Description:
- The chain has helices spanning 2-17, 19-43, 49-67, 69-76, 80-85, 90-111, 116-122, 127-152, 158-174, 185-193, 196-204, 210-234.
- It is mainly α.
Amino acid sequence: xxxxxxxxxxxxxxxxRSPIAYFVLAVFLLGTGYFFLYNIFSTGIGxxxxxxxxxxxxxxxxxxxxxxxxxxxxxTGRTMELLMTLPLRPWEIVLGKYLGAVTIFLLxxxxxxxxxVPLYLFGNPETKTILSGYIGFxxxxxxxxxxxxxxxSLTHNQIVAALITxxxxxxxxxxxxxxxxxxxPAMRELFGYxxxxxxxxxxxxxxxxxxxxxxxxxVVAIALTLNTSYLQWRR
Length: 235
């Protein structure tokens, strides 16, 4: 685990030494703040439901900015060869980089808590539903980051990594809409199960379903395993 912690510290230092973390944080907070105010004043209902949905779309578009440099930066900086020759196992490198990205994401998520201040001051929101929404948002974010990190390891170009990640994540988000076009119950169930948005909707409604949580964690496990296997193959 010492190798993982070393990579984790290195990633955090690199994030905060570059403008990427600050740019993503600023865009995310401005976006969520706008959506929150718009939904509150347009509906007149003191809930986070629509804000959470908008946060999900915003997360998918910003995820590549967090993950695209994780391995591409090593390739372009010609430090990947050095990293691979160190006494570190591939899974330690993958896990350390992933935890660094997750930490940035959790800081972004925690910062949105400022939106809850006026909600509790002037409204009577359901705390259980809000907590459930945040749990679902964190789980979905972890899955998005794992997918983005995997694609970052496949190419030396950060723009290419981002351009691959965005359509894949959007596909996971919108695939549930294809249920209506399927003729067999099995295919409808499969498309629904693969949908990020449908699982996230359960959390937004306050439903803490183990099936939905397991789905996101399985996506994380698969993406990180593929990432580790690819690094092992390169070595």
